[in-house]
């Protein structure tokens, strides 16, 4: 069955027939080749050859013998020879059997008209409703990037308005998921690196007093800030050696009563913590130096910590 457009088939044959009947062509030796076209032996190739020969004979007036409506089409298309007609006809034939979707219309600014664009995207397979979009089995957002139902519905609505097809939506969501997870992994690695570097810097600076000073900093934070404020402080400055050292300095300059209240002397310290602090305090040069301003305080603190250790063995 011939699925070619009747109009194009008629126009092509008419061009060849009209030009074949031109006197200059009919009197030539190439007339014998016409039988091949009629019999289908050489098909379009023979017709094209005949048309080209006819055009050469007829010169620039090759379309003059066409009916007015067909001549108008030739002029509008800008075809210069029968060969151009057959070439265009061949391109049209390639579209036979394919479902065709009309291009959406454009407004005066050259943008696609929204409603007509929607029609085209619906024809290409856009879901009927935004709720019909589905993510792939690989889609998983980190907790920090999780979308609630309201935000997810709003996002899907925007995707539908933009004309996303199902596979485009799934691809985009997978890319968003991958980027989010990579960002969270990089952030966690950077945070861990900063913590390690901060701890190393303070251990190097404080030496044996590290545990005591770290306890001072933590207890000041815990006792002088609300839980929410303390968490926010740690999130911002938890890996900043200067911030930690500041808290430790504040704790180290508090009165004995205040230190008891924040758990550095008395029942706020466990026997295990007391043993660690005793060792660190006794390693301090001030513990053995009677002339050091902190000597008396350190000796008393060691005494209090020893009482905690002793009470655990009773």
What key phrases describe this protein's structure?
single chain, 314 residues, rod-shaped
Which value, in Å, is the CA radius of gyration?
A: 45 Å
Number of strands: 0
The residue-averaged pLDDT reads 79
Q: N- to C-terminal separation?
A: 107 Å
Main β sheet profile? none
The ordered H/E elements are HHHHHHHHHHHHHHHH
What portion of residues belong to β-strands?
A: under 5%
User: What is the overall number of helices?
Assistant: 16
Q: Approximately how much helix is present in the residues?
A: 55-70%
Structural class based on helices, strands and sheet pairing: mainly alpha
Shape: rod-shaped
Q: Could you name the ranges where pLDDT drops below 50 across 5 or more consecutive residues?
A: 23-41
Would you write up a description of this structure?
By secondary structure, the chain is mainly alpha-helical. Among the domains are: 88 residues; 109 residues, no CATH class. It is built from 16 helices and no strands. The radius of gyration is 45 Å and the shape is rod-shaped. 17% of the residues are buried.
Q: What secondary-structure arrangement, pairings included, does this model have?
A:
Layout lengths: L5 H15 L2 H4 L7 H6 L3 H16 L9 H10 L4 H12 L20 H11 L24 H13 L4 H41 L3 H15 L2 H11 L3 H12 L3 H6 L9 H12 L2 H4 L6 H19 L1
Helix pairs in contact: 1-4, 1-6, 10-12, 14-16
A few lines on this structure:
This protein is an all-alpha fold and 314 residues long. Helix content is 66%, strand content 0%. The chain contains 16 helices and no strands.
